[in-house]
Amino acid sequence: MTMFIHKIRHIIDFFDNRGLDSLFLACISSLLIIGLVMVASSTADFAEAKFSNPLFFFNKQVIFILLGLFVLYVISHIKIDFYYDYGPLFLLLSLLISLSVHIPGLGVTVNGATRWIDLGFFTLQVSEVSRLFFFIWLSGYIVRNDFNKDYIKLFMFLALLMIIIVFQRDFGSMILLFTAFIIFSFLLNIKLINLFKVIIVSIIPIILLIILYPYRVKRMLAFVNPWSDPQGSGYQIIASQIALSSGGFFGQGLGSSMQKLFYLPEQYNDFILAIIGEELGFIFLIFLLLVYLILFSRIFIFYKKTQKISEFSSNIVLSIILLMLIQTVIHILVNIGLFPTKGMGLPFISYGGTNLLLMFSYIGLLIRVQIENKQSHSQAVHRVFK
Q: What is the value of pTM for the model shown?
């Protein structure tokens, strides 16, 4: 037992030396473990029926986590200056990756939406990668230039990316990107008149994008009253609410969900929170929200510390907080029926290669920033005592 505890401490020290806070690491580890358990539980029957292997999705999720750890390791060893120096390249990549779904043989269409590219061993949802690249470029651009003076021009680049994403029929990602940009701007003290102009200019196209597409109108109506179309647009919302309500305080028990038995679509991804609530109950959901709260609070504290060291690095950290937090909030609100249905996974928990690789990329960037923060601190101390 003593040897086991010693090894655990050694692992924690290993990460601490590379910039990870122990509580931060505990939150990430907890979410990944919960994710593995719930992916296995929510997909066992479906995987058995479709692939004759109840652990099919679980095994793939483990592979995605291992790939994610590799991505984390690589990114944590790339100096932050690289992203600053090659910012325009990341903007270009953001646009090109988004357009790559239209390359014949590469783009993948599911249910009329072309959001993915086929990489052979898994499909990559390009909008998730493009928004990270966009914010890497933006974080550096506003260090070199006047954010307020160039704000409208910056918004035009954002609008271009949003238009490309809309043509992928990925309205949820567009809303996430736009919301993150607005909050990012507000927190970095953009003039309210500029912010107001962008919001006003954006509202009309967003409304048109809803009313000009019948399936989006149906989703909005189903959001207001899911029972108006219980077998159509309102079906997922109703099934999700049934799952959550049947879980009660303590849940039906792990593996005992009824809604996962071919009733609730995307039960291992977009609606995994509903299955967690059904099987593990309201009390566990509160615990899960507390883990996310601690995680985001640790990153925010880290952001405030980084502001004193590097403007570019702090912009990167702020971008990561917003992208992760907004995605988490949207997933939760969709599952409890307080937001129209959107295809958005729960960070570190939902099944999917793109979602996990992106989350590990975020963590890799945070580790790299904190490593360089510590190096800057050590150099400052050395100069004082030299």
A: 0.90
